[in-house]
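The record is kept unedited without comment:

——
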Amino acid sequence: MIGFIVEIVLMESGYSVPTVLIEASPVIVIIIISMFYASASLVMFVLYCLFLMIVPRKSDFDYVIIHGAGLIDGEIVSKLLSDRIDKAIDVYNKDPSPTILVPSGGQGPDEKVSEAEAMSVYMKEHGVPEKDILPEDQSGTTYENLKNSKALIERHSGRKYTALVTSNYHVYRALRYCRQMGFKCTGIGSHVALYYWPSAVIREYLAIHAEKKHLFYFIAGWLLCILPIVAIALYGK
């Protein structure tokens, strides 16, 4: 056991608070700091997701990509997906210039139609003309959503100011992929039902940190927090 002495000194008054001796195993201290570091990182990610829903953005887009999500019974748009589409339609309706909606998502092994087709049907049912819908129905992942949509958009002439709409917790990873492929996009986060949000945010947080680059930064930051404790444990006696 190693004693860690915490002393708080009130500089303004010239008095010091009595020292507190905390007896703790270095392993326990490291575990506590690790939990605090991971929690702080998660909280920052959550705040970023919420910030995306209120941050001001321009409203003049030529294309709006909508990321697909799983379909109910293989053909029905889910609540999570309809929230994304509704957000995209709202952007479309408020845009002062002609805008093309790009529903993006292929057909999964358990789906009767592609996600892009199901989204297109939903859009038409909600007043979007077919001429303003440009489906991308070959992708199976977020990265492919963007890569294939980018290729589809680049086949057309004219201006290409592009936005992507997905669930608020998913925007960060989507924009990272955009930067990787040199695709300029504005990220727009859609509403997510409260009952679904906690588990979705945690899954997304873990997925992001499973990537090599993020994992490296996460471990590097963790080590910067831990090394002083290790140094105290080894040399602070």
